[in-house]
Structure to design on (542 residues):
């Protein structure tokens, strides 16, 4: 019996040939400098910040250089795949306004000519290549019990393998062909493994777009190509898919650097040119003990990309922060281009940091404050309203009930040479302006000011009318203050403070306390305009 008989026994129903597959996936017609990048998530639950970080690098490379950015769902790990997780991936991309050039819609329609874009729909392709490798003597069936359900038993149960020098060969690799066929026909379970050509002393070099040339020990393991359930693990599937789909740059986490020699041998066995890798650094955090640690699903809510929607961070703030993590040049560019949109930043793969960046919520919030400060009142209102429709329906209805009022609220201290920078997410606006929604029940009034506070507020309320300009309003405040013995000239007050009940600033503080309950707030005149004359009178009635 021959190796071809063995390959036919393994895959009797796979009639699709490798040549037919290659014709179906011709090389892409790219212009000079164009790239093909991909986002290839596994639908295992949430989309996390590290995964999104990689996606954004791939997306930015395509955006800068032109070409194709496609989405491929890698759902071959049945044990880890979570129902509806693919929908989460699509929802996050949609909310961030990122649309791949090629992908499969949720209802199963492929957009693009290099699909299917879901790996479990490509099983015949993987099996055809596995069949060819078996026929060429480059792969073999492994019947070891511990291979059942394992992507690479070699890492899990080395005791099941014969170790010769530094080699880690599978005991089934030299099984006679007729015995293997007999066991297959008897219904035994088996996986397909690559028969490594190395003995454990070889070295391999490969180039990484971030870290440069890397030299490492070559692969010397008979690793799994197809699990005993007929599905390939990541290594085999990605080598075939990225080649057929014409991927020019694969962005993935630096944890894959150690397995790159294995992938290189696989590309060679398949007769493919190895892809170009860009191993991005992992994102870290500073723990409570001051030590660096990986950003964590368990401890860090910002790990989950849904967090940014729930809190109400503008998309632009998240993108700007990621660019700060990715490239040290972005911050300098932003300083030189304070009013430019982040998308105008010229993204260069050579500028990606090789050092693991540290996620800093304070930095993210500062960036988001700057993003908010540049937005118009209408943009803030629209973003706030859209956020509320998903996360606070009662607030959304309130915003809809009086749009003009809440646009005015969003415009307080905005669209000025130096706008306030206090807001960093939509979820905090209601609490920040809580006094707009309801009369404050407590004030930050200092002990000893009770009588003066009551006296001034009652006097101001007596003839109150909503002023038509800030100047008119301030003159009205000074008039009442002067009649009650307050200094309207700050210089005079500083020279002889005991002659006065206070100064104009103190008078404004009393008004601010009556209207907001706080000593500090945004522009008081603008707050009064938002509240309206009737509500101001109501709050001054103490």
């Amino acid at each position: 019996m021959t190796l071809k008989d063995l390959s036919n026994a393994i895959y009797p129903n796979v009639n699709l040939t490798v040549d037919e597959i290659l014709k179906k996936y011709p090389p892409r017609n790219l212009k000079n400098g164009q790239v093909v990048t991909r986002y290839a998530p596994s639908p295992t639950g949430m989309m996390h910040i590290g995964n999104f970080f990689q996606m954004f690098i791939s997306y930015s490379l395509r955006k800068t250089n032109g070409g194709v950015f496609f989405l491929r769902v890698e759902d071959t790990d049945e044990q880890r795949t979570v129902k509806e997780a693919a929908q989460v991936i699509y929802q996050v991309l949609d909310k961030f306004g990122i649309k791949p050039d090629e992908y499969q819609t949720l209802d199963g329609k492929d957009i693009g000519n290099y699909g299917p874009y879901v790996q479990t729909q490509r099983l015949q392709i993987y099996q055809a290549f596995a069949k060819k490798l078996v026929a060429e003597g480059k792969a073999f069936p492994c019947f070891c019990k511990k291979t059942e359900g394992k992507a690479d038993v070699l890492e899990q149960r080395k005791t099941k393998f014969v170790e010769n020098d530094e080699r880690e060969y599978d005991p089934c690799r030299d099984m006679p062909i007729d015995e293997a066929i007999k066991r297959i026909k008897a219904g035994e379970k088996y996986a397909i493994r690559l028969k490594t050509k190395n003995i454990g002393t070889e070295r391999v070099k490969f180039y990484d777009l971030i870290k440069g040339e890397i030299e490492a020990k070559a692969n010397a393991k008979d690793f799994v190509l197809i699990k005993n359930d007929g599905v390939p693990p990541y290594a085999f599937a990605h080598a075939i898919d990225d080649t057929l789909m014409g991927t020019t740059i694969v962005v993935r986490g630096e944890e894959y650097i150690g397995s790159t020699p294995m992938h290189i041998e696989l590309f060679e066995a398949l007769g493919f040119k190895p892809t170009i890798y860009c191993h991005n650094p992992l994102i870290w955090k500073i723990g409570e003990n001051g030590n660096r640690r990986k950003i964590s699903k368990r401890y860090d809510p910002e790990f989950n990309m849904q967090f940014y929607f729930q809190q109400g961070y503008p998309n632009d703030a998240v993108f700007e922060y990621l660019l700060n993590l990715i490239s040290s040049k972005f911050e300098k560019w932003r300083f030189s281009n304070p009013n430019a949109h982040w998308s105008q930043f010229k993204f260069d793969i050579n500028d990606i940091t090789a050092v693991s960046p540290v996620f800093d919520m304070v930095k993210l919030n500062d960036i988001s404050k700057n993003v908010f400060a540049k937005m118009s009142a209408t943009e803030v209102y629209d973003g706030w309203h859209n956020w509320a429709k998903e996360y606070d329906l009662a607030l959304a209805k309130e915003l809809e009930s009086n749009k003009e009022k809440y646009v005015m609220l969003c415009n307080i201290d905005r669209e000025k040479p130096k706008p306030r920078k206090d807001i960093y997410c939509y979820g905090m606006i209601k609490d920040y302006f809580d006094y707009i929604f309801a009369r404050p029940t407590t004030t930050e009034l200092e002990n000893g000011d009770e009588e003066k506070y009551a006296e001034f507020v009652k006097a101001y309320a007596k003839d109150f009318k909503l002023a038509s300009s800030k100047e008119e309003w301030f003159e009205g405040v000074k008039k009442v203050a002067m009649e009650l013995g307050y200094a309207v000239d700050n210089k005079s007050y500083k020279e002889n403070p005991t002659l006065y009940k206070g100064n104009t600033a103190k008078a404004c503080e009393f008004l601010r306390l009556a209207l907001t309950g706080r000593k500090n707030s945004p522009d008081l005149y603008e707050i009064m305009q938002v509240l309206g004359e009737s509500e101001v009178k109501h709050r001054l009635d103490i």
Q: What stands out?
A: The radius of gyration is 33 Å. Residues 147-165 have pLDDT under 50 and may be disordered. Residues 118 and 232 are 13 Å apart (CA to CA). Residues 375-432 form one domain.
